[in-house]
Amino acid sequence: MEKSELKVKALDKISGEIEVPGDKSMSHRAAILAGISNGECRVSNFLPSEDCVNTLKAMEALGVKVDIVKSGPHGPVEMVIHGRRMKLEAPDGPIDCGNSGTGMRLLAGLLAAQPFRSELTGDASLSGRPMGRIIKPLAEMGAKIEARGEKAGCAPLVIHGGKLHPITYQMPVASAQVKSAILLAGMFAEGKTTVVQPADCRDHTERMLEQFRVRTRRTGNAITIYGGQMPESTDIEVPGDFSSAAFWIVAAAGMTGSRLLIKNVGLNPTRTALMDVLLRMGAKIQDQVRTGSEAGEAAGNIEVHGGILRGTEVKKEEVPNLIDEVPILAVAGALAQGRTVIRNAGELRVKETDRIATVVEGLRAMGVEVEEHEDGLEVVGGRKLKGARINSHGDHRIAMAFAIAGLFAVGETIIENTTCIATSYPGFEEQMKAMRNGLKK
Ligand code: S3P
What we know:
With about 450 residues, the chain is of the alpha/beta class. The chain folds into two domains: about 5-20 and about 240-435, UDP-n-acetylglucosamine1-carboxyvinyl-transferase, Chain (Alpha-beta prism); about 25-230, Enolpyruvate transferase domain (UDP-n-acetylglucosamine1-carboxyvinyl-transferase, Chain). About 30% of the residues lie in helices and about 25% in strands. The chain has twelve helices and 24 strands. It has helices spanning about 25-35, 50-60, 100-110, 130-140, 175-185, 205-210, 240-255, 275-280, 325-335, 355-365, 395-405, 430-435, and strands spanning about 5-10, 15-20, 40-45, 65-70, 75-80, 95, 115-120, 145, 155-160, 170, 190-195, 215-220, 220-225, 235, 260-265, 285-295, 295-305, 340, 370-375, 375-380, 385, 390, 410, 415. Strands 2-15-17-16 form a four-stranded mixed beta sheet. The protein has a four-stranded mixed beta sheet with strand order 4-5-3-14. α1 runs parallel beside α2 and α3 packs parallel to α5. The chain is globular, with a radius of gyration of 21 Å. The mean pLDDT is about 95. Bound molecules: shikimate-3-phosphate. The site of shikimate-3-phosphate has 11 residues, from α5.
């Protein structure tokens, strides 16, 4: 991947309104479910990021016809996907999932049930991430999956799919990706597949299955799917991605005098714990859920006013519902008076980078006092940030979180290795420029 950098200087105020691109989690799921549905599905506000485009291409490689209806400056945003009624075609070669854990894990669940051999590959980061967590349950269901990576249990994955049987599976970690892989596979198994999550985690798969008229049942923390159901074609309108909005929420909340309106953002409660934490930190945020929500999901506007933040402790049960927001929350902690404690977040060590290590490294470079723990970090905030050179290590959320930190720093901040931003937020840099040059009011 070509290297590039982003230079950021302090900003004194943000004022106006923006929209963020479509939700990443929902775009992956829309491509997959539409592709196995029984007809034509129009997907709009699809996220044209590398991760989601890779999943769309994967579905095409599996024989799904996709007609692009509209493309934006960064790629396809609206398309008609022609479902193949649960039966995919063997791909000609390996399927490249790029940087995306969601793409690889969900596709593995789908391919486990197809009667052919397939291979899923990824970039260096994805090839170092644990796949045993999906191989184990899918193997219990009868699939044969070989992890052929240099690191044990890692991609490339060779999947010998076939007939599956239902299981009941207790997930050791609260992972929506693992849950989704099992539910997708369970759709093809005869009988009742149940996955039990140790804690609530994002439920887009269950909600989108419902949109496609596939029944799941939730009892406490157990989610059951009945095999033999075929998704009924439907149109999906993807709302803006809360995880992308999170960067601007923190930027505006920490800058006195700011007022920012973020329009049309997904407000699924399993995604928005960052707002609860920021409210405890004293942030002035209001969200307004629109009625007649998108794709079975709550969506609406978020209004943020700038002010003084103070440190807080993140609760254990909040962690899965803000897991992707920890880098930007740690930046909020650096801006806040006092100590912000984020623990029970060991999962961060197996994301696109070891995000505990990369966040700690970046904060220290900016002069912030931070304590690293195996399962999280503690940030002592309130001191002026110093501009610094920050390496994203190829992790999109690290690049963006520290670009936001740069808006608060004395001197210039240079984020190195920023091409990765395109994996989840094409257009981030342009929006950042617009914050400085004047947004729509
Ligand atoms: C995702 C689930 C989360 C999250 C990832 C997207 C999803 O991962 O970190 O960015 O779309 O299901 P885990 O489920 O592995 O925690």
